[in-house]
Design a protein that fits this description.
By secondary structure, this protein is α+β, with helices and mostly antiparallel strands. The chain folds into 2 domains: 157 residues, Ribosomal Protein S5, domain 2, CATH 3.30.230; 143 residues, Alpha-Beta Plaits. Helices cover 36% and strands 21% of the residues. It is built from 8 helices and 14 strands. The strands form 3 sheets. A 6-stranded mixed β-sheet has the order 6-5-7-4-1-14. Strands 2-3-8-9 form a 4-stranded antiparallel β-sheet. The longest helix has 20 residues. The radius of gyration is 19 Å and the shape is globular. It starts with a strand and ends with a strand. The model has no long low-confidence stretch (mean pLDDT 95). The protein binds ligand DP6. Ligand DP6 binds next to helix 4. The site of ligand DP6 has 15 residues, from helix 4.
Length: 312
């Protein structure tokens, strides 16, 4: 019997960067995200004689995946599994493949082994594997904060159908993985201010989402992104995830907002640029970003649903 689960990546508007010391991948900062549609991880699971993992058709050894399976097995009866995972987008290039990957994995194992987890429990196991994965369990607007550090839905996608225009500026894997980058950043002199101020940013952003206040969310989300990149730059050695095209896209998006278009920019631990906008602005934003030399591809994406099993 094969069990199949799907999960979408998410984009943080208030960023998670940094971990609470010695607590099993507990984030040091709360975060708030939107789950995407179109981009998807599909994970198929079968019971086997020994664990085997394939990513996009190739056998892979993955420490985080092995740790996630060990964590599940410490709590549930999970047999050896063959896990086949596919992304319809570039892996490890700042499009959050680990988020959709672990959300799909935990959902598939829960369904395959009939573990009976609720969504909060799946979110907690996904979070222990990769912080951002906790948020991909849910669709629409999602919050991840303490004390329990299971994500929770804030607003359904139909209640505020924002659009996300992704400008792909490089298909290369990122230079420094998020977990390693975060550990380095925690020694930065900027780090304590980042953690303290992000708690306040998060509280305000939850209100802006509930009020569907685009302008307030735009200003705050762009600030959270640039503040995280400020911390990354102030890490030793400095974490520079941008390329010249990334910066060109950032300037273009800010110029469009200054000209009155409802759009803002966010960038994660990679060179891709995500422009978040009201639906009426998406066509113009996509055209403007497509015209920038060096932009490889433009993806225009809506907000998506949470992780789910394929109906048998
Ligand atoms: C910049 O969730 O990939 O995308 O918990 O170590 O797996 P680990 O980190 P990860 O970090 C995501 C960082 C980010 C911001 C965000 O998504 O909140």
């Amino acid at each position: 019997m094969t069990t199949i689960a799907y999960a979408h990546p998410n984009i943080a508007l208030i960023k998670y960067w940094g971990k609470a010391p010695d607590q099993g991948n507990v984030p040091a900062t709360p975060s708030l995200s939107v789950t995407l549609d179109t981009l998807v991880t599909r994970t198929a699971i079968e019971t086997a004689d020994a664990d085997r993992f394939e990513l996009d058709g190739r056998p892979v050894e993955d420490k985080k995946l092995a740790a996630c399976l060990a964590d599940l097995r410490a709590h549930y009866d999970v047999p050896p599994l063959v896990i086949r995972s596919r992304n319809n987008f570039p892996t490890a290039a700042g499009l959050a493949s680990s988020a959709s990957g672990f959300a799909a994995l935990v959902t598939a194992i829960d369904g395959h082994c009939r573990l009976g987890m609720d969504a909060a429990t799946r979110s907690t196991f996904a979070r222990r594997a990769s912080g951002s994965a906790a948020r991909s369990i849910f669709g629409g607007f999602v919050a991840l904060d303490g004390p329990d550090w299971a994500a929770r839905p804030l607003l359904e996608r139909a209640d505020w159908p924002l659009r996300v225009v992704v400008a792909v500026t490089s298909a290369a894997p990122k230079a420094v993985a998020s977990s390693a980058g975060m550990r380095l950043s925690m020694a930065s002199p900027f780090y304590p201010a980042w953690v303290t101020s992000t708690h306040e940013d998060f509280r305000l952003a939850v209100d802006h989402v509930r009020n569907r206040d685009f302008d307030a969310l735009a200003e705050l989300a762009e600030h959270s992104c640039l503040k995280m990149h400020g911390l990354m730059l102030a890490t030793r050695p400095g974490l520079v995830y941008w390329n010249p095209v990334t910066l060109e896209c950032l300037h273009r998006i800010r110029a469009l907002r200054a000209a009155g278009l409802p759009v803002f920019c966010t960038i994660d631990a990679g060179p891709q640029v995500k422009a978040i906008c009201l639906p009426e602005a998406a066509g113009r934003v996509a055209a403007e970003l497509r015209a920038i030399p060096g932009v490889i591809e433009i993806l225009e994406i809506g907000l998506g649903s949470g992780a789910s099993l394929e109906a048998p």
